[in-house]
Amino acid sequence: MTRPLRDVPAQAEPLLAALEPALDGRGPAVAPVPDEHRDASHATKAPGVPDEVAVVVRTSGSTGDSRAVMLGGEALRASAGATYDRLAGPGRWLLALPAEHVAGIQVLVRSVLAGTTPVVMDAGPFRSAGFVAATARLGAGTRYTSLVPTQLVRLLDDEAARAALATYDAVLLGGAAAPAALLDAARSSGARIVTTYGMSETCGGCVYDGVPLDGVEVTLDDGVVELAGPVLATGYLGRPDLDAQAFVHRDGGRHLRTSDLGTLDDGVLRILGRVDDVIVTGGAKVAPAAVEDVVATLPSVAEVCVVGVPDDEWGHAVVAAVVPAGAPPTLDEVRALVAARLGPRHAPRRLVLRDHLPHRGIGKPDRRALVRELTDPTPRRTL
Questions:
Q1: Other Cβ atoms closer than 10 A to 123
Q2: Is 224 a domain residue?
Q3: What is the four-CA torsion angle of 86, 89, 94, 95, rounded to 10 degrees?
Q4: Of the N and C termini of the chain, which has fewer Cβ atoms inside 10 Å?
Q5: Residue 236: beta bridge partners?
Q6: Cα–Cα distance, 230 to 232 (Å, whole number)
Q7: pLDDT mean across residues, the chain
Q8: Mind giving me the DSSP string for 120-138?
Q9: What is the pTM of this model?
Q10: For residue 265, what are the contacts with CB-CB under 8 A and spacing of at least 6?
């Protein structure tokens, strides 16, 4: 059986009104649509979705291909329930992320299922003053929020924002890998940071601080992360070809084959980066995320993104693009640190200084955009 799919503006108030009947089956499934995409909406063109689907979230893959992920009501309930079991139980949420992204949708879904009303930050660019003001509106009781690393960086630079951040019972941090130095700084300031790993196809974060939520299973297939459990999406709207690529049946269960490489150490998952981000340089394989983790420990580095660019001698050369924190690091300093920690093949051969890094989605570094910029002949600050 199928149910109708309705476009809803990607704003908290209309979404909250539509989500409750969508989750309990009384109303149509919901497709959050931001204003800029309203005229090209996908939902109104769909004849319907499987009856169990409650939400359809549009997401952009790493190559920029747009896809619509169908999330079942039971999957969303399982995700919310497992989240509250892992944290301090139901509470009130601050929505600081776009409502069309799965992390923002989940703030609203968890609020609906807990019977609470979320506080929503004012529209516009994320600012620490806005976060402080919104936090003050939460009132007493258990409080949560979800952030991406770039937002956390801004909050830690402001004394009032650091104080506000410390009042949350948990701050879910996802969307992109967070440098260890950033996590240390946040936790030292009193923030209860919980790192999350997941994607739209798993109803958002399903691994907290490296440990799967209850009911979620993490396995590795030749180093590639696979996820299983009640939080898996129903599939892709109108794309059975993508379903066949992403979802595999093994050992009597359905698994999502991600595009991420990882390791499991005593049941704790560590993400090494995307399969297609691995740099082959001089015959060696380099995981950019591992290099970024090392470079980010330098006090002179605010943000870093590592990519491979074509090179006549090495095939691809490892390049570190850095947003400095004050006086910038030197190439020799970066190379020495990385070589000591990971080996000389991992050491960047170029260091590019940037005022900011390109991003896609909600905080994910846009490696492909960075490669395009680095291979552009326009002069840039390069060491």
A1: 7
A2: no
A3: 60
A4: N
A5: 69
A6: 6
A7: 91
A8: EPPSSS--HHHHHHHHHTS
A9: 0.84
A10: none
